[in-house]
Amino acid sequence: MIAICLAIIMAGAVGSDDKVFELSEVVPRQAMLSGSAGRVQILATGRSSHGILKDLTTSVKYTSADRSIAVVTPDGRIHPVSDGSTTIEVCDAARSERIDVVVSDFANQRPVHFVGEVMPIFSKHGCNAGGCHGKASGQNGFRLSLLGFDPAADFESLTREGRGRRVFPAAPEASLLVKKPTGQLPHGGGRKFAIGSPESETLIRWIGQGMPFRTRNEPELVRLEVEPGGRLIPRQSRQQLRVLAFYRDGSSSDVTRLAQFQSNASELAEVDANGVIQTQGGIGEAAIMARFGGLVAVARATVFNEAQRAIRVLPLSDNLVDSLVSRQLQKLGLDPSAESTDAEFARRSSLDICGQLPRPDKVMAFETDPDPRKRQRWVEQLLAQPEYADYFALKWSSLLKNKRGLGKLSQPGTFAFHGWIRQAMAENKPYDRFVAEIVAARGPANVNPPVYWYRQTSTIEDRADDTAQLFLGLRIQCARCHHHPSERWSQDDYYGFASLFARIGLKAGPDPASPRLYNLPRGLARNPVSGIDRQPKPLGDPEFGNINSMRDPRDDLVAWMRKPNNPYFARALVNRYWKHFLGRGLVEPEDDLRVSNPPTHPELLDALAEDFVQNGYDLKRLVRTIATSQAYDRSSLPNPSNSADRQNFARFFTRRLPAEVLLDAVGLVTGSPENFANVPDGFHAIQLPDDGFPSFFLDLFGRPKRESVCECERSSEPNLGQTLHLLSSDDLNARLTSATGRAARLTADPRPLIDKITELYRLAFSRPPTDEETRECREFLEKRQQAGQTRQGYEDLIWTLINTKEFLFNH
Amino acid sequence: MLDIFGERYQSCDGLSRRSFLRVGALGLGTLTWPGLLQSRASERSGKSSAHKAVIQIILSGGPAQSETFDPKPEAPSGYRSDVKAIATRLPGVKLSELMPRVARSLDKMALVRSLTHETSDHLAGLHWISTGFASTQQRQDQNERPSVGSIVARMKGSNGPGVPPYVAMTEGAFNGGLFQGGAYLGPGTNPFPLNGDPTGDLKVRNLEPPAGLTLDQLEDRRDLLGRLDTINRQRDLSGMMNGLDKFTAQAYEMVTGPNARRSLEISREDPRLRDRYGRTRIGQNCLLARRLVEAGVTFVTISEGNWDHHSLVEANCRTQVPPLDAAIATLVDDLADRGLADDVLVLVWGEFGRTPRLNGSGGRDHWPGSMSAVLAGGGLKMGQVVGATNRKGEQPTDRPLHPADVIRTIYHVLGVDPLHEFPNESGRPLAILNQGQPIAELI
Question: Are A143 and A122 in contact (CB under 8 A)?
Fold first, then answer.
């Protein structure tokens, strides 16, 4: 009772302080508007007595001292009216601030900048998007470069093509470029802006001026900034952004109106065309990308739980993960779920580290072990099991596309490559060496199996793409054909990287499926747009000099990857492993590290990567760190505070067992494991070396086809076919009714019913049944017994356990 | 909660107490309850759409309109097809000579010749016709919006017990019948895949209980599962546990009820009728689709490929069009013979048309500028042609229409409110289809 009153009082007190925000900052202090289309966005910020900031842009009052010079819309946008200067007063009940405003060139004498003013219109309204004029074939004969990365081509297309109908300098208003988007002529894309809008005025003026391409003294854009760059925002709130462009000559301008915006997490925050963030119901970090003139800037919106008052503080630990995850939870107002039970932890970690259910006797010993560090010891034990190597060899063998592409002939190769991968996992080969031996593989494949990796791809570009995505977490394919739309990679960057793979030669070895990899004396990749061969160069390293042409450029690539300060190599790996255990990457998807897709926990990603590098790229150490962290140790059962958490690890995120793990688990519980052809009996699904083992079950439950280096190829999405298979397939029925299966054995087993029920529960769920469950099972089995169907009773019970979510999920 | 739902059930339809208990025991309500309520409500309000169904045939790859539904015998050489045009049941309307049977039954169909959209990419085009929305191509193999079939599955449910609302036959389709899933409506609205070989005696895997396993035993198991499968569903934020519950309920109806299995026993059909459909995959799939809608399936999508004829388009069409001709014409006639013409809408289309001009390999390339669709039945006005293309077949000269217009017509037939909103993953409410208009000429 006392606690409830206290809570109410606290809520009241905090509420009153939190709801009063006084105007504390107004930007900009000076606004320079040039031309009649110039606009400047005001940002008004309030502060509560607790120091919490809030966007007041739409709630403050704006007053222009001279409405014949400039006016302000209620959402804080300054419009010019005529040349001159004035001030704008911004005030709330408590305070007032002034902005000096200068309007120049309202009559628009200055030449329109094609790149800085015309092209942004195409970007903002999606004209140059991939679905419209930006696609390679253009739209109805009119083609623009995708997202405006090629101004010269766009200029050419507008002014020289289309039989001159697109622009009429003599009567600019009659140009197709004006009539189509304003809807005066039928336009497949619909009406994009109105006649008289700043957009149409700018286009008309540009055409009227004779379509200048680059004017004298036109400043070159060098940098883009978005304000505020990061902010804590409550749920269901609004935050205005403003975007500033900085030019080589030191000038800057407000381009909020011209920029495009995009959120990377729409369940947390959405953003509209005016740069207004609207936070949603989710909690966590969203990145809002602003794009203008080929540059990208990112604002972080940290959406917190404004209703949460207190966070359970967890004990200090020596695990580097814990404090960094906890700090974010406190910042966001998310209360972590309780610690998992020993049984939950044992099952979870065994599934994630060894790809199999834990043995009941081991779990029981673990439960009764009084050692406070028993979880560390448990993880250690798992890492020492051969199944650890099996399971992670399965993971890497899938990612490395170890597939029988050439049919039976390629089987010795896939087996050898899998064996090599498995050996590397078993001996805990340092990850940098593991990758170096793959990326720079050479010689005969039958002697040096990593050469088989190069058998799976045949073009320079595919090799570059796969290497970047798998080992660097970079998806660079976009830059094959155009500048990457949300990254800094240009086509020159892309083909420089591709040139690292341009001197690979493959010769038939002892058989056509076992090639020998050798170095071609020369070879470069060519940027197809510029027609220029690019010198080999890793991504984003300006200090990287020219590569000695006597060496295999892949050796330099590997050396670059292994530099301790490489920004991608270690981060990509620790992020991949983090996701393996926690169900979600710190960057998500895990192989899409991008400025515009920042990590949810940047310091954690850095700390894990640093620890990984400093300790010799030790994969087992990384697994140990993650698997013994508090984040991995939480119950999946949510509390009221974290029930909507999808990215902060306040609770364990459940997932369905992967296909191979599930098949092995079904085999274990039914006592009738799968027998794969051409391998010894007792061979588990997680041990399969390649894709050449037909299995309806594995395909149905989403094993990857090994055609992509993307982890996403593995599907855990449920479908009715899977359910039907578990419900009434011959396959499962044969396992349940097998004469050597568990049901048959339990039937002949003289132990009391309760022991046998407990055995089944411990096998399937790694825990004993509750009293209620024991009672249900016993009644069921006894009923069957009385009907003379004892064995059928066990079959039914095992079937039931397999069909529960508790069995099918890792939780 | 359950009691309230139970009352609701008893008061507004004939579902037995027994069937409700079964459904309730498996926790069906959580995911499908809104959908169920909705479909009951719309059945009460609009009698006309109560038992309507749709059979959609997607000719994936993009069929050439000039060799099928929009022949251009007057086009200049280099454009003109060697495939001739023939007269049809409709005065003045011509079809490709490869479609004599459709030509004879054209009075039972409506041709739309002026469809157009803006993408010449297979995946983007397939996304467009499958969902009504252009794709932003951020997801490579999943639709960003729910497929039409998934929307219908959620809004209408099945027309009969023990069958899924939405079935897809995509085997052998170009691109594997992509983009037919439920997107943010969740995996529970994904189509039930039928990937057997319908030309033989189709047996659908896992639909018949294994030998020795009785239906009673299955029922007992279900009962026990209801009592033991008690893990707190709140543990799972992905919605998968709830989705599986729904699948379990559906799977049970399919296996233990007679309806689904009987509808799939294609060998029960008169062999002469099977011959008329054609003993081809498209022919037997169409026959199967008819059996499915009779059993209560609301939406069937048949993906039939490969129509991506970049070379030798005429020769390829001479092989591929006649089986299609037989299948469509027989399906439409068969539905009419059974008095189902007004209840079942048949739609045939592809992701785009093909270039009016022949390329150097005697093929035609991707052409979203003009394409044709066939609609039949569903209570729409038949025996007409909507829209026309120019002499070469490059673009509409009359009534340019978009995929969204066709899909709005489907929703009109089924009584699906296109402005009804579903929240996406972020809780943002999105209208089912806020573009296009039902094609006025057909209504």
Answer: no
A606 neighbors A565 (Cβ within 8 angstroms): no
Rg (CA), chain B: 22
Prediction pTM value: 0.79
Query: B177: pLDDT confidence band, cut at 50, 70 and 90?
Result: low
Peptide bond into A228 cis (omega under 30): yes
Residue B2 and residue A278: Cα distance in Å, rounded?
37
Restricting to A residues 618-637, those with a Cβ less than 8 Å away from any Cβ of B are 636-637
B2-442 maps to which CATH number?
3.40.720.10
Written as one letter, the residue type at B317 is C
- Of A236, A306, A232, whose CA–CA distance to A269 is shortest? A236
Helix axes A730-737, A659-670, angle to 10 degrees: 30
> Out of B209, B235, B369, whose CB is closest to A728?
B209
Best residue in A805, A807, A810 for a mutation probing chain B (most B CBs within 10 Å)? A805
Q: For residue B429, what pLDDT band results from cuts at 50, 70 and 90? A: low
Query: Going by C-beta distance under 8 Å and a sequence separation of 6 or more, which residues neighbour residue A384?
Result: none
Residue A516 pairs with which residues in a beta bridge?
A: A444, A507
**Token representation of residue A377:** 């010891």
Contact A266 B428 (CB under 8 A): yes
Residue B412 to chain A, least CA–CA distance (Å): 24
Nearest CB neighbour to B228, from listed A716, A720, A800: A800
Cα–Cα distances in Å, from A386 out to A308, A379, A799?
A: 45, 13, 29
Instruction: Give chain A positions within 8 Å (CB) of B224.
Output: 776, 780, 796-797, 800
Of A266, A638, A696, the CB nearest to B426: A266
Tokens 């000076």 — which residue?
A30
- Touching check for A140 and chain B: CB below 8 Å? yes
- What's the pLDDT score for residue A735? 95
Amino acid sitting at position A15 = G
Instruction: Please answer yes or no on whether B425 and A267 come within 8 Å at the CB atom.
Output: yes
Q: B-contacting residues of A 704-723, CB under 8 Å?
A: 716-723
Q: Which two tokens stand for residue B411?
A: 């929703």
The series of mean pLDDT values per 10 residues for chain A, 811 residues long, is 33 50 94 92 92 92 96 96 96 92 93 90 86 73 85 89 84 92 86 91 92 83 94 94 94 93 90 95 92 91 84 84 94 94 97 98 97 96 98 97 80 94 98 98 94 89 93 88 80 94 89 87 88 90 76 93 96 98 93 90 97 98 98 94 89 95 98 90 93 87 83 76 87 94 97 97 97 97 96 97 97 96
Which residue from B155, B181, B157, B182 is spatially nearest to B420, judged by alpha carbons? B155
Tell me which residue of A356, A324, A583, A428 sits closest to B235, measured CA to CA.
A583
Residues within 8 A of B (CB atoms), A 681-700 only = 696
Taking only residues 727 to 756 of chain A, the set having a beta carbon closer than 8 angstroms to any beta carbon of chain B reads 727-730, 733-734, 737
Q: Per DSSP, what are the bridge partners of residue B421?
A: B431
A225: closest CA of chain B, how far (Å): 25
Give the domain ranges of chain B: 2-442
Name A443's bridge partners.
Answer: A517
